[in-house]
Design goal:
649 residues; alpha+beta; Glucose Oxidase, domain 1; Glutaredoxin; 7-stranded mixed beta barrel; 4-stranded mixed sheet
């Protein structure tokens, strides 16, 4: 890997850049809240190790150790601990730059109990990225994988100011590290790239890289299949300068006449696999992604890379084309299509796939050049920190537009659910298990919910109520509802009306209670003479006393036997008197034939009157029976009208 810088430099020179390229230092916000003399917001550089809290923030008290101020030794040797006491703020340790690797400083600080490490630069210069060193031959070369605390590099002047306050004024310096805006989060889909390499013989870095692919595979495939993300694998290659094309180095490390090169895996040109073997496998992985993406299954790349690392490792001498093709076939992909994409690696011509990779390596817009392997680029911003499943997922989740992150981002491993404590201070209906609290990756929000298609409206903090035509479907619209005597009444109406109204026969607020109205006691029913009133729940019953037959509810009256002859005698008197008047004579002077005509006419009229009476009685009875039946067993044609008029369900 030492020759990496050599080839990178040549690549940048040939593309019109300096060896520094356009590398961007990824930064986050550092805000000092105390003392007032330092109160302000500053920039700091995120280290390329540890776990930055993307999407969140941390607050702590700064400590500058009296001994081991560069943190190059174990703090146990100085009997120093930075573990915070219960109830107190976490401790951020401030250390000096120099004398050892950044990762070793962070490792010693973490072991001493520090929650974060701030490294003060020892010279006045722009901020740089603290990276992982190449610690070849060091028995502890993999300890950086176990660093979990976040790290930040601050400039020399800020470091000196903090030290001065801590030493002279004996004041507390309280700092908030904020990563909420460290990565862009423009919309509800995250686009990310993983710049990687198929080489598995570069020590702890390669081991860490493949372990990440294996561990993150399931999560990545779920996000991709459900459309939450758009993933693209990327591969770095370099150009061999023209004057070195005929050297053994270029011949063994490059394909397509020096256009695409990779360092020798073992850094030994006399044994093992060569750099061009790595380039070819990188190209095969890129082509596998291209073909699988064209067939609508880009997530198969994760399966291919994982299976290849297990079945075709360099250590077992299986890092070959034949082994790779066996893996491709096992995933039901077309080997011929992939070989066609790879083309002829010996030809003096450009390969369109690798050419696109080289062009993508150059930074565009706010993103700098990619020069570190491995590198994650999330929404065009470079991720810094430990290549770990939880840490990377947290960074991806922080890159969704606020409140659009998938449920996967709110799992216990990633995020603390703020709605679990006191319901986040939002409105809730415990009885119906409805809450306005919604947990998001950046914190909880209080918004009236939509439940089973029913929209709740309100401020989300103190009040939410159902609205719309289906409001009674959820918790009865928050209104009163009760069942007694096999009858159910509700104060909620599915008619787009707002609020709760007690149904006919009840009184109350409609929300907490509706009390039965005693129509008999309040004399609002059965007020006719001879009527007897009996109160029922939500209604009343009337009966008639004495010789009365039945009660007519619509007329609030009783009909009895004594009403039968009224019409008959009235009709007889009227007709007899009329016939006498018309004749103009005393009836006795008429012939018996005339009398019989009159008698028969009166009889006919009497029978007709009685028939009319019976018809009206039967109509009244039918009407009353229908009313009674409608109360207990509504007719099909009356169901809707009855429910609306009485408020019953």
């Amino acid at each position: 890997m030492r020759k990496l810088g050599f080839w990178v430099c040549f690549w940048f020179l040939l593309n019109g850049s300096s060896c520094l390229g356009k590398f961007n230092v990824e930064k986050n916000s550092l805000r000092i809240t105390a003392p007032n003399s330092l109160k302000d917001t500053y920039e700091c550089a995120i280290g390329n190790f540890g776990i930055p809290q993307y999407g969140g923030s941390m607050m702590g008290t700064v400590v500058y150790p009296s001994s081991n101020q560069n943190s190059c030794k174990n703090f146990d040797d100085f009997s120093i601990s930075f573990k915070s006491q219960p109830g107190s703020q976490p401790i951020f340790i401030l250390v000096d730059r120099g004398d050892c690797f950044f990762t070793l400083k962070a490792w010693n600080a973490q072991n001493a109990g520090a929650a974060a490490i701030l490294v003060a630069d020892d010279i006045s210069e722009p901020l740089i990225t603290m990276d992982i060193p190449e610690e070849e031959g060091d028995s502890r070369s993999d300890y950086f994988q176990n660093i979990t605390i976040p790290s930040a590099l601050i400039n020399q002047s800020l470091g000196n100011s903090i030290k001065k306050v801590l030493s002279s004024n004996n004041e507390r310096v309280i700092i908030s590290l904020d990563w909420k805006e460290a990565l862009p989060h423009p919309d509800d889909r995250v686009e990310y790239e993983f710049w990687t390499n198929s080489n598995d013989e570069c020590g702890p870095k390669c081991l860490n890289q493949i372990n990440f692919v294996k561990n993150f595979k399931g999560t990545a495939q779920i996000l991709e299949q459900k459309g939450y993300t758009q993933f693209t694998p990327r591969y770095i290659t370099w150009i061999c300068p023209e004057e070195f094309l005929l050297t053994n180095q270029c011949k063994s490390q490059c394909i397509n006449h020096g256009r695409y090169c990779a360092p020798d895996p073992e850094q030994d040109f006399t044994k093992g696999y060569e750099g061009k073997d790595v380039v070819l496998q990188n190209l095969r992985q890129a082509c596998f992604f291209k073909i699988s993406n064209e067939t609508g299954k880009p997530w198969l790349w994760w399966d291919y890379v994982t299976d290849f690392s297990i079945r075709c490792s360099m250590k077992e001498q299986k890092y070959t084309t034949d082994c790779a093709n066996e893996v491709i076939k096992s995933l039901s992909m077309d080997v011929k299509e992939i070989e066609k994409c790879i083309g002829n690696p010996d030809a003096d011509e450009e390969n369109q796939v690798l050419k696109a990779e080289q062009e993508a390596q150059i930074g565009k817009g706010s993103r700098g050049d990619v020069t570190i392997l491995p590198t994650l680029v999330i929404n065009n911003g470079q991720y810094r920190g430990k290549l770990d499943k939880s840490a990377v997922l947290k960074a991806i989740c922080a890159s969704f537009q606020e409140r659009t992150e998938p449920a996967l981002c709110l799992s216990e491993d990633i995020e603390t659910n703020e709605c679990l404590q006191n319901n986040g201070g939002c409105w809730q209906d415990k009885a119906a298990n409805i809450t306005a609290c919604r947990d998001t990756f950046r914190g909880r929000v209080c918004e009236c919910p939509i439940v089973q298609g029913v929209m709740f409206v309100g401020d989300g903090y103190t009040h939410c109520e159902a609205s719309g035509a289906l409001q009674c479907a959820v918790n009865n619209g928050g209104c009163w509802r009760e069942t007694q005597e096999d009858k159910t009444y509700s104060a909620c109406l599915d008619n787009n009306s707002k609020g709760c109204t007690c149904p006919l026969g009840f009184k109350g607020d409609g929300v907490h209670t509706c009390q039965d109205i005693d129509e008999c006691k309040e004399k609002t029913a059965c007020t006719c003479s001879g009527c007897k009133c009996k109160n029922t729940w939500g209604s009343y019953e009337c009966s008639c006393s004495g010789n009365n037959l039945f009660y007519l509810r619509e007329l609030d009256t009783c009909i009895g036997n004594k009403d039968r002859p009224v019409c008959f005698f009235f009709c007889f008197f009227f007709i007899f008197d009329t016939s006498t008047f018309v004749a103009g004579k005393d009836v006795k002077t008429e012939s018996w034939s005339t009398i019989w005509v009159v008698i028969l006419g009166l009889a006919a009229i009497g029978i007709g009157g009685y028939a009319i009476y019976k018809y009206r009685i039967r109509s009244f009875m039918d009407s009353e029976i229908r009313v009674i039946m409608a109360q207990y067993m509504p007719l099909d044609s009356q169901v809707e009208e009855h429910l609306l008029s009485r408020g019953g369900v």
